[in-house]
Amino acid sequence: MAQTVVLRVGMSCEGCVGAVKRVLGKMEGVESYDVDIKEQKVTVKGNVTPDAVLQTVSKTGKKTSFWEAEPTAPAVATA
Predict the structure, then answer these.
(1) pLDDT category, 1, cuts 50, 70, 90?
(2) Which of 35, 44, 62, 73 has the most beta carbons within 10 angstroms of its beta carbon?
(3) Average pLDDT, integer, range 7-36
(4) Helix count (H) and strand count (E) of the chain?
(5) Buried b / exposed e across 49-63, counting CB within 10 Å, b at 16+?
(6) Where is the HMA domain positioned along the sequence (predicted)?
């Protein structure tokens, strides 16, 4: 079953992005991925498990963790 895994990956340059893309391109079950260096965010879609994606991306030597959903701030009404 296809699922989406979102990771926070410490990337500082295009070489970092290339390394992440390289390992994801070789990973079995990956249908698509998006690497956003500005957000330090990697989104992977496919028939994969979150732990397998985390381990694979960690092989690049980059600091990798699951993307935690950030709590949304309550809307502030202004009068």
Answers:
(1) confident
(2) 44
(3) 97
(4) 2, 4
(5) eeeebbebbeebebe
(6) 2-65
> What are the structure tokens assigned to 22, written together?
């390289």
What would the DSSP string read from start to end of 53-69?
Answer: HHHHHHTTTS-EEEPPP
Mean pLDDT of the chain: 90
Match 């732990």 to its residue by tokens. Answer: 51
Distance in angstroms (rounded) separating the CA atoms of residues 45 and 42: 10
pTM of the model: 0.83
Could you tell me the CA-to-CA distances from 73 to 38, 49, 70, 76, 78 in Å, in that order? 22, 30, 9, 9, 15
Please give the Cα distance from 55 to 78 (Å, whole number): 46
What is the mean pLDDT of the segment spanning 59-79? Answer: 74
Please, which residues bridge with residue 36 across strands? 41
